[in-house]
Every structure is written in structure tokens, then in C-alpha cells.
Design goal:
Layout: H1 2-21, E1 31-40, E2 54-55, E3 58-64, E4 70-75, E5 81-86, E6 89-97, E7 110-114, E8 120-127
Parallel strand pairs: 1-8
Antiparallel strand pairs: 1-2, 1-5, 3-4, 3-6, 6-7
Length: 138
């Protein structure tokens, strides 16, 4: 009888957990959050024809907007690209660097809503803290 009660309580806890988290479960990951992690600026002044951003390897984390619980995480590749499968819902996406980049600040967390069919596309920009060179404005 004690074993039956323990099993029954475990099943109830899982069901309640699904209700609270809005169904964020492994089997329901039919939505995609994808994008790039980039570092900017690369130099103090913009140069015509040259990009002021470069891809960086970063850890990207997705947390439920409602509960704050991390539901998925991945590492972007050397081109800064990442792709994460999640259940439909509202999320907060954050990122941080894996390498030692001088004075780089993490991007502001992005709130997204994932729905089946169309991937959510993000660009997460890390600020390099390089200041522009020039004269102050009058």
C-alpha cells in the first residue's frame, strides 16, 4: 500500500508540474528559437564596407517567462549560430560568453513567444566596450 501511495503521489506531482509550467516538456518541443551571437563594435570607428560585428561562441539559455525555470540551453557555434527546440510559450533568452573577451557585456535578455510553424529569430549582441574615437559634440 505504501508503494502504491508513493507512485500515486509521484504521478500527481508530475501532472501538477505540467499544469504549472504550461506543458513545457520534452515531448512538446515543436517550436524553434534560433539566431546568432555577435560581438560589437570591433573597433572604435566604423569603416566603409567592413562589418563592425563578429560571431562569438556563447552559451544561450532559455527560461520560462512564467516560472523562471531554465527549459533549454545550448552553445552557439564558431559562426555564432544557435538553434533550440522548445514547447510553445513565452520565454526569456539570455547568453554569456565562454571565452575571455576583454570587457564584454552580455546582451539584454530577450523576451520571446514561440509558436509552432515559424521559428523565433534573434541576434544577441555582446558589447565590447570599445568607445568611439572623435571630437565631442558642441
Amino acid at each position: 500500500m505504501a508503494l502504491f501511495s508513493a507512485v500515486l503521489l509521484s504521478v500527481a506531482a508530475v501532472l501538477i508540474g505540467e499544469i504549472i509550467t504550461g506543458g513545457e516538456q520534452e515531448g512538446a518541443r515543436n517550436c524553434v528559437i534560433q539566431g546568432r551571437t555577435l560581438l560589437r563594435p570591433l573597433q572604435p570607428a566604423e569603416q566603409p564596407g567592413k562589418s563592425s560585428r563578429t560571431p562569438v561562441v556563447a552559451t544561450v539559455s532559455v527560461a520560462s517567462f512564467n516560472t523562471g525555470r531554465t527549459v533549454a540551453a545550448t552553445q552557439s557555434n564558431s559562426q555564432g549560430r544557435f538553434r533550440i527546440r522548445v514547447a510553445a510559450g513565452s520565454y526569456v533568452v539570455t547568453a554569456w560568453l565562454q571565452t575571455s573577451t576583454p570587457s564584454s557585456r552580455s546582451p539584454v535578455p530577450a523576451r520571446v513567444t514561440a509558436t509552432p510553424g515559424e521559428p523565433v529569430k534573434l541576434v544577441l549582441l555582446f558589447d565590447s566596450d570599445i568607445e568611439a574615437v572623435g571630437s565631442p559634440l558642441p
